[in-house]
Amino acid sequence: MTNKHLELKRNHHSVWAHYLKGWSPDGSNVFSTTRSKKIIFDSVKMLTVERDFYKVCVLTDEHLSCIRGVSKLSPIHLHNSHMQELDSYLQVQLAQLKSVDEGYCSEDSERVFLAWAHNSMENQHAQHELEVREIVRSLACRDLSVLEKDNNMLLFMQFIGQQVARTKVFKRSSIERLSLSEVASVREHARLFQECWWFMHYMFGMSIAYSLFFERGLFSNTLLINGASESFITSDQPVINIHPALDLGGENLSGKECDFYYPVSPKVAYIISRSGRYSSGVVEASEELVLELNEKMAKSALVNIISDNERALKSTENTSAECCRFGLINFSMSKYRMFFHRIVLTESVAGLRQQTFSRRILIVRRSLALL
User: Fold this and answer.
1) DSSP line for 311-362
2) Which of 93, 156, 313, 367 is the most exposed place for a label (fewest CB within 10 A)?
3) Rounded mean pLDDT of 123-141?
């Protein structure tokens, strides 16, 4: 393992920086809102970043019980894949603990373990991004046919699922909902979710991905072309649920309300939906629809609303940041049976492909061989 591989990646991105460049007038900077509601023009590398956001931490028996309990609510094939992914991390954790207990942990092996803790999850997200780079480029060029190939659709749904679940918005909304419960045992799960979120979010993302992929026959695939004067905006939560039922309130939803919207560029957006509102194929977006989608995107942001021009951001200054969050969490967590009081998690379907997880376990084992 080279010194470069041992460099720590501590600035973890919750949104793909290369994707954000699609809104850059100069190839590196975009217009963005800040926590204080100011509008800045800054590098994409400085946005949607948090130090050690995905850092791998030691999982205790209590954490493992929580993770496995949630995973067991999935169909068996999906549960097995979650557990295979979990096992790849536990192998390294056990090797690290054993080396410390038996007193043979060298300085070099400590560096390997430290790099693994800081880099492994960030690298997994980078791998998903790399796998869809050409797919996203094709969509930006208004080519929806790229998703007609099953493998492309699978990779893109993995990316979409992870982009839903890897953000600070998703983390905060998920944990807050647990922590506000009147049931003490549920509030305790909020602590466990917080401590092992680095793994939980990835499991949720994969569940969303496989649900979307294997149930794709129930969804419409739409590529919106923006011919209006106003650009599509994006945010620190670039995939949002815009199903019309969410505007009516979130207490009596079935769990099937899913219209995921993902702006690909200022002039192109992708929607995978089951409401019937959006037709399959390449569709021209009216100015009214562009403004509606921009408002929903702004409402779902935590801090950063991002655009290729300052004017579009000024129109979001009075937007409430709370309105759409339940809708996002509702779909991504709703298709599971009840695991604890009023908390529902995403279900997928059987037939899960194993190669992605197997490849990553192989990478981990090769890393261990270097210790």
Assistant:
1) HHHHTTTT--SSTTHHHHHHHHHHTSPEEETTEE-----S----HHHHHHHH
2) 93
3) 97
Q: Cα separation of 99 and 116, whole Å?
A: 15
What are 49's strand-pairing partners? 13
**pLDDT band at 154, cuts 50/70/90?**
very high
Evaluate whether 321 touches 296 at the Cβ level (below 8 Å).
no
Rounded distance, CA 184 to CA 179, Å?
9
Q: Quote the tokens at residue 33.
A: 């809102």
For 1, the token pair is 């393992």
Higher pLDDT, 321 or 132: 132
Query: Is the pTM of the predicted complex or chain greater than 0.70?
Result: yes
Which residues, 6 or more positions from 346, have their beta carbon under 8 angstroms from its beta carbon? 204, 207, 208, 211, 331, 332, 333, 334, 335, 336
Kindly report the length of the chain: 371
Average pLDDT of the residues in 52-63: 95
Tokens matching residue 158: 């993995």
Which residues are CB-neighbours of 165 under 8 A, at least 6 positions away?
201, 202, 204, 205, 208, 332
